[in-house]
Design goal:
By secondary structure, the chain is mostly beta strands. The chain has 3 domains: about 40 residues, no CATH class; about 190 residues, 7 Propeller (Methylamine Dehydrogenase, Chain H), CATH 2.130.10.30; about 150 residues, Regulator of chromosome condensation 1/beta-lactamase-inhibitor protein II (Methylamine Dehydrogenase, Chain H), CATH 2.130.10.30. About 10% of the residues lie in helices and about 30% in strands. The strands form 7 sheets. Strands 1-2-3-4 form a 4-stranded antiparallel beta sheet, with no helix packed on it. α1 packs across α3, α2 packs antiparallel against α3 and α3 packs parallel to α5. The N and C termini lie far apart (about 70 Å). This is Ultraviolet-B receptor UVR8. Pfam families: RCC1_2, WD40_RLD. Keywords: Receptor, Repeat.
Length: about 525
């Protein structure tokens, strides 16, 4: 419609003549602003907030933000305020950043019950700084799920621990390794009632044997009454069918246990390793009998080095150490297949540093010891494997052995956060919860079952990492994988999700999946949820 015809007044436009920029005159000068340098110690200028005037606020902010030790060190390097004594209790000589590190240490369950003397001893062992103690504690928390829900796929039997410390067990029970006071199999998760009132924070399972660790650092063991050879040979004088306190460890605050085929190892709160049995020929740095029940410290190169995680293979032990200059891995035991990572196949009777990680410029964060091969996840998310390569368990696309750690190139686009190893089998969990597996496909424990009838070629060996699509379909973020680490038992696998749901697949002939199988069925190819809430 025409605007004039409608009676609406027309808009009048006026031409504004162009004016050269040079003719525009600014009447008043634009004020310039002086750039002021703020100092941590303040000035006499009103409104200036000197950090030194109220350091308690700064300390609160540093602690509340949960800064990591590297960030605290950078603050010290960039500003003298964070380096000088803060005049605060409990140590008036400590700097603000050191106090913040100490405060964050005191939030950790391992650190809280320590006496002042024990804390100072740990501080000196870690390098003389509370920031280094914090680094040690955080590294340990990242390695294994202490005080969090966890599931252990042992040889023929399984252990599940809730976030509140309640323990369930199921599967084979010929040696009383389920802890229920009997030797009868359990096909469904059953709570270990005798542990009521005791909070369990970590578990380990070997053939016919189980070890549990409480939040007070006490160790309970049941099953075969021996710390030595698990499959054959010495089995102890009796079977223990309910959890019993390990008296020889009562004076050691234990945070982790690892069970190999010929030996058992525990890790103390201070980062010291103690081993039982398999001392003949000084295989673990000491001379003992196979049925020895006394713990012996693993010394040598680790005598003054704090360890944050241990992992036991069939006949060797790995130790992840935390030192001021970074993380490192040591190995000891049988070197067949190159699984000790030193470029040879010779045995090591004392712990020896694996030097290859320095050449790869990789900071190890998690270690895993399979029966015959090993794996590490680096801080940057790279995965390294080495040892026997049978069935493709190293993930390098072949079955060759590797005597030094080698990066799994097929995972170059994946940032890994967790790795688990078994008998020629490897699983990797990425930062987004995806799961990859490779190696021996026996017992359908790799999770690669794609046929509509659930059968398919799920027993095929996998030479390079493949996404476990069956776990992708559960629409849950996977945070932990556990798989059987024994050469004598058919393997099964657990996948634990962020919400506390547990999925199982693989061999289930003894009830170790926690799932009832139909007639003539001995395994499950696809993950199935176990009827248990681990939150």
């Amino acid at each position: 419609m025409d605007a004039t015809a409608s009676g609406t007044p027309t808009i009048q436009y006026h031409n504004i003549p162009d004016q050269p920029i040079t003719t525009i005159v600014v009447a008043t000068p634009v004020p310039t602003f002086e750039r002021r340098q703020r100092h941590c110690f303040g000035t006499s200028i009103p409104g200036e907030f000197p950090l030194a005037a109220n350091p308690s606020i700064v300390l609160h902010v540093l602690t509340a933000c949960n800064l990591d030790p590297q960030d605290l060190a950078k603050l010290e390097a960039t500003c003298s305020f964070f380096r000088q004594p803060a005049n605060f209790a409990p140590d008036f000589e400590l700097s603000i950043s050191e106090l913040a590190a100490l405060d964050m240490c005191q939030k950790r369950g391992i650190f809280k019950p320590m006496t002042a003397e024990q804390r100072q001893e740990l501080k000196q062992r870690c390098g003389g700084s509370w920031k280094l103690v914090l680094k040690f504690l955080l590294a340990g928390e990242a390695c294994f799920r202490r005080e969090k829900s966890q599931a252990i796929a042992g040889p023929g039997h399984s252990i599940a621990v809730t976030s509140k410390g309640t323990v369930y067990s199921f599967g084979s029970n010929s040696s009383g390794q389920l802890g229920h006071g009997t030797t009868e199999e359990e096909w469904r998760p059953r709570q270990i009632r005798s542990l009521q009132g005791i909070r369990i924070v970590q578990a380990a399972a070997g053939a016919g044997r189980t070890m549990l660790i409480s939040d007070a650092g006490k160790v309970y063991a049941f099953g075969k009454d021996s710390f030595g050879e698990t499959e054959y040979g010495v089995q102890g004088s009796k079977l223990v069918t309910t959890p019993q306190l390990v008296e020889s460890l009562k004076d050691i605050f234990v945070v982790q246990a690892a069970i190999g085929n010929f030996f058992t190892a525990v890790l103390s709160r201070e980062g010291r390793i103690y081993t039982f049995s398999w001392g003949n020929d000084s295989k673990l740095g000491h001379q003992t009998e196979p049925n020895d029940v006394e713990p012996h410290p693993l010394l040598g190169a680790l005598e003054n080095v704090p360890v944050v995680q241990i992992a036991a293979g069939y006949c060797y032990l790995l130790a992840l150490a935390c030192q001021p200059n970074g993380m490192s891995v040591y190995s000891v035991g049988c070197g067949l297949g190159g699984k000790l990572g030193h470029g040879s196949r010779t045995d090591e009777k004392q712990p020896r540093l694996i030097e290859q990680f320095q050449l790869l410029n990789l900071q190890p964060m998690v270690v895993a010891a399979g029966a015959w091969h090993a794996a590490v996840v680096g801080q940057d998310g790279r995965v390294c494997t080495w040892g026997w390569g049978r069935y493709g368990c190293l993930g390098h696309g072949n079955e060759e052995c590797e005597s030094v750690p080698k990066v799994v190139e097929a995972l170059s686009n994946v940032k890994a956060v967790h790795v688990a190893t078994g008998d020629y089998t490897t699983f990797v969990v990425s930062d987004d919860g995806d799961v990859y597996s490779f190696g021996c496909g026996e017992s359908a424990s790799l999770g690669h079952s794609t046929a509509t009838d659930g059968q398919g070629n799920r027993h095929a060996n996998v030479l390079a990492p493949e996404l476990v699509t069956s776990l992708k379909q559960v629409n849950e973020r996977v945070v932990q994988i556990s798989l059987t680490n024994s050469i004598y038992w058919n393997a099964h696998t657990f996948a634990l999700t962020e919400s506390g749901k547990l999925y199982a697949f693989g061999a289930g002939d003894k009830g170790q999946l926690g799932i009832e199988l139909v007639a003539n069925q001995t395994e499950r190819g696809n993950p199935e949820q176990v009827d248990i809430d681990l939150r």
